[in-house]
Amino acid sequence: QVEVVESGGGLVPPGGSLRLSCAASADTVSISGMGWHRQVPGKERELVAHISDRGRTFYVDSVKGRFTISRGNAKNSVHLQMNSLKPEDTGDYYCKGLDGATQTAYWGQGTRVTVSS
Questions:
Q1: pLDDT tens for residues 53-103?
Q2: Dihedral angle at the C-alpha atoms of 65, 78, 35, 93, nearest 10 degrees?
Q3: Residue 61: predicted pLDDT
Q4: Which among 56, 79, 53 has a CA at the least distance from the CA of 68?
Q5: How do residues 17-65 score in pLDDT, each as one tens digit?
Q6: Which of 24, 66, 69, 112 could share a disulfide with 97, CB 3.0–4.6 Å?
């Protein structure tokens, strides 16, 4: 069984920064890639950033140059540094851990990010 836990959301004014953190506990599953997805009401959950087990990163165009995804020091942990935040970055951010063997995705409960003055 894999448990994924996110932290670090909150309310921030436009132009501000937040750092999201995620940790996946996986005793028998080998987690390969980890990523962050965002969902707003009425829209599908979208991939924001992803990092592979080899450190290769992907960003959606809207966050390139502002967000940075990185592996944490602990195993199966990842951070998302979000700078120059915009109101359109508002949403529920979900961390995903990917089982490298089966491609099964494990999701956290989400953390809310609100960018507003």
A1: 999 999 999 999 999 999 998 889 999 999 999 999 999 999 999 998 899
A2: -80
A3: 97
A4: 79
A5: 999 999 999 777 888 899 999 999 999 999 999 999 999 999 999 999 9
A6: 24
User: Residue with structure tokens 């995804």?
Assistant: 69
In angstroms and rounded to an integer, the radius of gyration of the C-alpha atoms of the chain is: 14
- 3-class secondary structure per residue, the chain: CEEEEEECCEEECCCCCEEEEEEEEECCCCEEEEEEEEECCCCCCEEEEEECCCCCEEECHHHCCCEEEEECCCCCEEEEEECCCCHHHCEEEEEEEEECCCCCEEECCCEEEEECC
